[in-house]
Amino acid sequence: xxxxxxxxxxxxxxxxxxxxxxxxxxxxxxxxxxxxxxxxxxxxxxxxxxxxxxxxxxxxxxxxxxxxxxxxxxxxxxxxxxxxxxxxxxxxxxxxxxxxxxxxxxxxxxxxxxxxxxxxxxxxxxxxxxxxxxxxxxxxxxxxxxxxxxxxxxxxxxxxxxxxxxxxxxxxxxxxxxxxxxxxxxxxxxxxxxxxxxxxxxxxxxxxxxxxxxxxxxxxxxxxxxxxxxxxxxxxxxxxxxxxxxxxxxxxxxxxxxxxxxxxxxxxxxxxxxxxxxxxxxxxxxxxxxxxxxxxxxxxxxxxxxxxxxxxxxxxxxxxxxxxxxxxxxxxxxxxxxxxxxxxxxxxxxxxxxxxxxxxxxxxxxxxxxxxxxxxxxxxxxxxxxxxxxxxxxxxxxxxxxxxxxxxxx
Length: 410
Description:
Shape: globular
CATH class: Alpha Beta
CATH architecture: 3-Layer(aba) Sandwich
Order of helices and strands: HEEEEHEEHEHHHEHEHHHHHEHEH
Largest sheet: 9 strands, mixed
Number of helices: 14
CATH topology: Rossmann fold
CATH superfamily: Alpha/Beta hydrolase fold, catalytic domain
Oligomer: single chain
Radius of gyration: 20 Å
Distance between the termini: 37 Å
């Protein structure tokens, strides 16, 4: 099968609710349930407790009304059941040559279905003989309520935002839910990111404890990350909780820059008013917010993962320290960027992963495709470009798979 045929075939196969899906003679997909232990970080929880430092926090910042007029968005974050308990898809080669290593695949911003990633996961699993785990970011994919993807409901919300925010750009039914939520409380970006960070660590610990039979022999987890997923993968790799990722490799596709070097305003991702609110909170005024948001101050100042999260927000914040950490792990990182990517431009990824003066020898490749593509759709299902798209897909995943199969650090 070529990429187009594989896409359609896997989309059909993955519609099944069966926990074990027989894909073909070489591949199966196993669905496992995961229950997050970290929802107490989120908006609406009256108090939360940091076990590491034995400190409790009262969540006064999030107690004010949400002020959503659209039904379905007035849910309290810590009560979103889909974000607490959800399925993880595992692409599992039937005849594994490598049963001690696996790949965690992290997706892009504001994505609601895994469809485009099924061929990616299949290709990685087939080429590396490693299981590929599709792990959803908090409030994305199957961790978000279905009504956040309801076309009629979200179209009405988009129209409402356009009426009340006359200078808003790129509002759409696709980004209405996430734009409204982040515009209302930009710190959600930090809390959902930290929840996902802790969820990934919890998942690995569960694998080590034998909670997931198909992954009970895995001792090393690598990353394949795309777009904003790379932001999270970098924090996991660099902070290296419990030394789980000392030998992990990180394959970054269309991602790797610090947050303030993104340009995420587009109809599939985020509208302009939400982006302005996030930039104002996370970049321009974060210091001021940390004065009165005690819990946020604690996690960004007293936790290693929070410190690195903050380094990855602002290109100028602790740049020397961030570049020293990137240099420490540079041999484990391989990024492929796209020349015409306007959301996370190649030169921004380049200057983050190789340093401002390009002194860090991280492997970063800038490539271009012989067809029209976007950041959101690097391999569009466009029949007239089928041969070129197949060749591009083959080339990208051949390179990433080769890197994953290379020997460990020198």
